[in-house]
Amino acid sequence: LAKTTQPISMDSYEGQEVNITCSHNNIATNDYITWYQQFPSQGPRFIIQGYKTKVTNEVASLFIPADRKSSTLSLPRVSLSDTAVYYCLVGDELIKAAGNKLTFGGGTRVLVKP
Amino acid sequence: DAGVIQSPRHEVTEMGQEVTLRCKPISGHNSLFWYRQTMMRGLELLIYFNNNVPIDDSGMPEDRFSAKMPNASFSTLKIQPSEPRDSAVYFCASSVLAGGIDTQYFGPGTRLTVL
User: What are the pLDDT digits (tens) for A15-26?
Assistant: First the structure.
């Protein structure tokens, strides 16, 4: 499994865009990049997943450069409720049998201030 | 769907006692995962099942920990005997492979305190 490196913490203010970059230099050809969000006292929640270029959903955007050695999660116009820990994971999502063994790193603790 | 259901939500016990944590995965999901989260070690995968069969238990810390999945709708994680260092939040997650994407859905967790 590819190891990931992301900042320990980031502070932001309401209404700003937050960008969290994750490094995964040893990403394999079949690996997908997945981001989870965890609020205090809750389990992690899937945010977004991508393989290359850009993916966007109602919550966030994920930018992946051509070499795929890093990825950036972008949260547009954050609010206080976006305060959480954000985890970047890399793994092979294309296994035929479900049960992808995900390895969570330390995550990035994002604090949104008023 | 109610999501992944875990019980109890909180458990306080004394060292040496047996602890059983329970999980009901989302209906139709065929993979189930048990994680443990502490401040020191973060979120660690303990064991996971695929179609009720244990696939990888390399994360189980020691023989005091055991997990079962007797059917597709129920799993248990047992600690016997429990020790103070087992205090943590234990999460259960389930997933299903759909369209080549395998997304895990986590339960609310069980906060275990061993005195």
Answer: 999 999 999 998
